[in-house]
Amino acid sequence: MKSLIDLQVGDELIQPDWTDVSQNAVNQFADATGDHQWIHIDVPRCEKESPFGTTIAHGFMTASMLPQAFSSVLGSSEKIASVINYGIDNLRFLEPVRVGSQIRFAFKVTERTTKPSGTLFHVSATCSIKGSDKPALVGTFLMLAVEVPAG
């Protein structure tokens, strides 16, 4: 398994395992963000009124899983002091993630830039929903690998 610092432009990484999206996780995200919109937390109402027939995860909940998913497909490196989430260049939510579904992420390194504090990686990400042809989200996020000082 490659470490972040060893990745090159064009390298692709896919999570081997699917992640369950539970109502409990959605409720915890709603509590953490204050976003208690009924489409996310009101199961009986969603069964009756939602076009999805069930509750759905917040788009930003799915996006917030990107850094952990990315780190799960990387090995460690003694050359890296820390990894900093540097931002998102673009992000699109294409398909709702229904509670009870499973998701996983695929990544592709699209750019690698040397900075004074380390190496900045631009990584395209796609979140797949098991059994769906359409991804939940696509986007490009940036991670800065702060390297251990030489010497």
Describe, in plain words, how this protein is organized in 3D.
The protein has 151 residues and is an alpha+beta fold. The protein is 23% helix and 37% strand. It has five helices and six strands; from the N terminus they run ββαααααββββ. It has helices spanning 23-33, 38-41, 43-49, 59-64, 66-72; strands spanning 12-14, 19-20, 80-93, 102-115, 118-129, 137-147. Strands 1, 2, 3, 4, 5 and 6 form a six-stranded antiparallel sheet that branches. A hairpin with a 7-residue loop joins strand 5 (118-129) and strand 6 (137-147). It is elongated and about 65 Å long.
Proportion of residues in helical segments: 10-25%
**How would you state the average pLDDT, rounded?**
96
Contiguous helical run count: 5
- Rounded Rg: 17 Å
Q: Element order, helices and strands?
A: EEHHHHHEEEE
Distance between the termini: 26 Å
Largest sheet: 6 strands, antiparallel
How much of the polypeptide forms β-strand, as a percent range?
35-45%
Give the beta-strand count. 6
Coarse structural class: alpha+beta
Mass-distribution shape: elongated
Low-confidence region ranges: none
Short description, anyone?
This protein has five helices and six strands. Strand 5 and strand 6 (137-147) form a beta hairpin. It has helices at residues 23-33, 38-41, 43-49, 59-64, 66-72; strands at 12-14, 19-20, 80-93, 102-115, 118-129, 137-147.
